[in-house]
Design a protein that fits this description.
By secondary structure, this protein is α/β, with parallel strands linked by helices. It has helices spanning about 45-55, 100-105, 145, 155-160, 160-165, 170-180, 195-205, 220-230, 240-250, 275-285, 310, 320-325, 340-350, 355, 370-375; strands at about 5-10, 15-20, 35-45, 70-75, 90, 95, 120, 140, 150, 190, 210-215, 230-235, 255-260, 285-295, 330, 360-365, 380-385. α6 packs across α7. It is an enzyme of class 1 (oxidoreductase).
Length: about 400
């Protein structure tokens, strides 16, 4: 197969290297028949990858990155019954068995069997079960009949591939954040973070019927892009009084629903890192009995944290404020399978132009290093890797 992939070398450094061809076997070497080998059609650089590359997790050098994968089935195990060679499929970033209690209840983000160290598995990610990542030319996907979303028509899918590639993670993640924040018809919504997940959350809020969708960030380029695609930008560098800035847009300092698409590397108005600041702001601006969706990533161990407590994932939250206001919070990895089929239909029927909303930008696999550097610098783009030149063609 001549496989190549994006490999984490150490803090601040990735390389595109020759890597082993995928095999129908688990990370501990057991042969599996419920998996498929995919020729990767598209695979995206994610902000979650950047946390590892910045050295903000316990990721070990040599990890093949990539959990946002769309591909073509080129080989399948004997137990795979619902997929055929040549099918184009979306891969949820969750590795899920489909058999445990959590999977059977739809909570595929916390599958109990695919990761010996904790609930939940993912491709190419630290502490997520050792499953090899898909920023590569080829990748293996286990429990294929359960996990994979087959696109119903190959030609139609390829015409929409810039949009459909977002189904593996950021679009369902943004949608999950909006759903868990209680967004509905007429909602006033604030999204923290104008990166790709924040934009996906904003797009999701809009399709769910929100009346106003605001996005807050310090990054001027990202805020301007958010404005161009129809959202209300909130420039956090202008003031440390978020409620006042919201009131300038809506007439009131509170919102019905808030979505944290930033996570643990959040920064305050002073420029320094304050890992709990977004969570605290959410509690301040969300109305009494309102809801807060938290798709932004928070980790159990952060070697680069600003203090000893944060290194263990302990944050200085004003939880009493949220309790006093009877707010609801929802955290955790998105169970992609709950949403990806409906979102696929919205894309195929021209209801959700997510590629334009997140400014999807296609680059070859061998330009991944430059893509990581550019994305880390805060450009208003979502980089989509094209390992075989299929998208460019």
């Amino acid at each position: 197969m001549s496989n190549r992939g994006v490999v984490y070398i150490g803090p601040g450094k990735v390389e595109v290297q020759n890597i082993g061809d995928p095999k129908l076997q688990s990370p501990d070497g057991r042969k599996i028949e419920h998996g498929v080998i995919l020729k990767v059609v598209s695979t995206n650089i994610c902000g979650s990858d950047q946390h590892m590359v910045r050295g903000r997790t316990t990721a070990e050098p040599g990890l093949v990155l990539g959990h946002e994968i769309t591909g073509e089935v080129i080989e399948k195990g004997a137990d795979v019954e619902m997929l055929e060679i040549g099918d184009i499929v979306s891969v949820p970033f969750n590795v899920a068995c489909g058999r445990c209690r959590c999977c059977r209840e739809g909570d595929t983000g916390v599958c109990l069997t695919v990761n010996p160290s904790r609930a939940g598995g993912a491709y190419g990610y630290v502490d997520m079960g050792g499953w090899i990542g898909g920023q590569a030319r080829y990748v293996m996907v286990p429990y294929a009949d359960f996990n994979l979303l087959k696109f119903p028509d190959r030609d139609r899918a390829m015409n929409k591939i810039r949009d459909l590639t977002m189904l593996s993670d950021i679009l369902p993640t943004g949608f999950h954040g909006a759903v868990k924040a209680g967004v509905g018809v007429g909602s006033v919504v604030y999204v923290a973070g104008a990166g790709p997940v924040g934009l996906a959350a904003a797009a999701s809020a809009r399709i769910l019927g929100a009346a106003v969708v605001m996005i807050g960030d310090f990054n001027k380029e990202r805020l301007e892009h958010a404005r161009r695609v129809g959202f209300e930008p909130v420039d956090l560098s202008a003031s440390d009084r978020l409620g006042d800035m919201i009131a300038q847009i809506t007439g009131t300092p509170e919102v019905d629903a808030a979505i944290d698409a930033v996570g643990f590397e959040a920064r305050g108005h002073s420029g320094g890192e304050q890992p709990a600041i977004v969570l605290n702001q959410m509690m301040e601006i969300t109305r009494a009995a309102g809801q807060i969706g938290i798709p932004g990533l928070y980790v159990t161990e952060d070697p680069g944290a600003v203090d000893a407590a944060a290194k263990q994932g302990s944050l200085s939250m004003r939880f009493g404020l949220g309790w006093a206001k009877a707010q609801s919070f929802h955290t955790g990895q998105t169970p992609v399978l709950k949403y990806n089929r409906q979102l696929m239909q919205a894309i195929l029927h021209d209801r959700l132009p997510i590629a334009d909303i997140v400014n999807a930008t296609i680059i070859p696999l061998d330009q991944a290093v430059a893509g990581y550097e550019s994305f880390d610098a805060g450009v208003a783009r979502k980089y989509v890797l094209d390992p075989h030149g299929i998208l460019a063609a």
